[in-house]
C-alpha cells in the first residue's frame, strides 16, 4: 500500500518504497543475493520498476527502501553517505484485528552483510509493530534452503515454529518448503535487549 511511515535509527532509515529506488536495486542485486526469493530476479530498470510497483500495490504490505542515515560504515569500515540505498524490507500480511504481521521480502547489498544493518532494521520494525501498533505476534519466514537467512532470523531471538512442506513455488517453479519463526509480545523485551546489545557492541 502507499504509506508515509518512516523509521530511523542506528544509522539506517526505512522510507516508503518508490520507483526512485529501482536503479539502486538493479545495481546491487545479483542471482546469489536473490537466492530463494519468491519471484524471478528482476532484470534491468524496467523490471525493477515493475517489481517496486507490485510491492506498493499490495494492500496488505508496507514496503520500505533501506537507506543509510548518517555516517554508518560497511563491513570493511568504509563510510557510506547519507541516503545510500542498501536494500529493501517490508511489513506484510498485516492483520490489525488479529494483532499480527510478518516481516520479510528483505534483501541488502553484500557490503552490509555482517554489519549492524540487519539488527538495526529489525529493531526499528519490531519496535513499531509491538510498541506503536500493539501487535501480539510478528512472524518471519525463509525458504528452508536459505541457511544464511534462517541463521539471521534465529540470531534475532525468534522462535522456530517448523517447516511447511511444499508451501510455495520457488522462482524456477519448483516446490519450496518454508521455515517459519515468530516473536510474541511477551518475548519482545528479551529480543529488544538482545538487538540493542548487538548495536552497541
From TrEMBL:
The N-acetyltransferase domain, residue ranges: 13-158
TM ranges: none
Record-linked PANTHER family: BLL6696 PROTEIN (PTHR43610), N-ACETYLTRANSFERASE DOMAIN-CONTAINING PROTEIN (PTHR43610:SF1)
GO molecular function, one term: acyltransferase activity, transferring groups other than amino-acyl groups
Alphabetized InterPro entries for the sequence: Acyl_CoA_acyltransferase, GNAT_dom
Pfam families, A to Z: Acetyltransf_3
Organism: Xylanimonas allomyrinae
The organism's place on the tree of life at top rank: Bacteria
UniProt xrefs under Gene3D superfamilies: 3.40.630.30
Protein name: N-acetyltransferase
UniProt keyword annotations, A-Z: Transferase
